[in-house]
Amino acid sequence: MAVLRKLARPLLAAPFVTAGLRTLRHPEDVAEVVQPLARAVGARVPALAGDPRQLVRVTSAVQAAAALMLATGRAPRLAALTLAATLVPTSLTAHAFWTVEDPEERAHRRARFLTDLSALGGLLITAADTHGKPSLAYRSRHALDHRHPVEAVRRPAQAAAASTVQGARAVAASLTGSR
User: Fold this and answer.
1) Handedness of CA 128, 134, 140, 141 (dihedral sign)
2) Is 68 exposed, middle or buried (0-12, 13-18, 19+ CB in 10 A)?
3) Lowest mean pLDDT: which of 58-67, 112-121, 163-172?
4) Which of 137, 140, 92, 139 is nearest to 117 (CA)?
5) Long-range contacts from 29-37, C-beta under 8 angstroms, 24+ separation
6) Looking at 84-178, which runs of residues are DSSP E strands?
7) pLDDT, tens digit, for every residue of 52-84?
């Protein structure tokens, strides 16, 4: 399974690296399409208000960086979640097929939207992949199920203390008796 992960992660990340770098170099190609989203984000994040090219640059840089992290196996779960978080608004704005009247353009956008949905599914599976190790939630649930009652710990401790006291008394008796 490790070989499959090492092969699949770069394949899943490749489109995000290329699209992120292309959009980072030429944000004006996408800035017009994301104008409505830029206004909504600008209302919530004042630093990104105004120029939609700035939002496009930030998003594309995040996508390229997260895709490179995913491709190289550095924090792959976090990288996959980051890519998924950037993919949803991108897909909803750039491939909104339901807003187009032309049947040919509508079919083209629908195909791109469904491609993005399949990539989102792959990213979510990648984000949930724990490399065959139990997840943190599983480990914490089972740690609570397997904890030892106080009595199970106290009895052996009392027995050890009693034997230590008996040993100390025996040593003390032998030292006082030998004088």
Assistant:
1) positive
2) middle
3) 163-172
4) 92
5) 30/56, 30/60, 30/94, 31/56, 33/93, 33/94, 34/90, 34/93, 34/94, 36/93, 37/89, 37/92, 37/93
6) none
7) 888 888 889 999 999 999 999 999 999 999 999
DSSP label at 149?
Answer: P
Q: Which residues contact 66 (CB under 8 A, 6 or more apart)?
A: 16, 78, 79, 80, 82, 83, 86
Query: What are the respective helix, strand and coil percentages of the chain, to the nearest 5?
Result: 85, 0, 15
How far apart are the C-alpha atoms of 127 and 114, rounded to whole Å? Answer: 20
Alpha carbons 64 and 24: distance in angstroms, whole number: 9
- Asked whether the predicted pLDDT for residue 149 surpasses 80, the reply is no
Q: Which residue has the tokens 């009392």?
A: 158
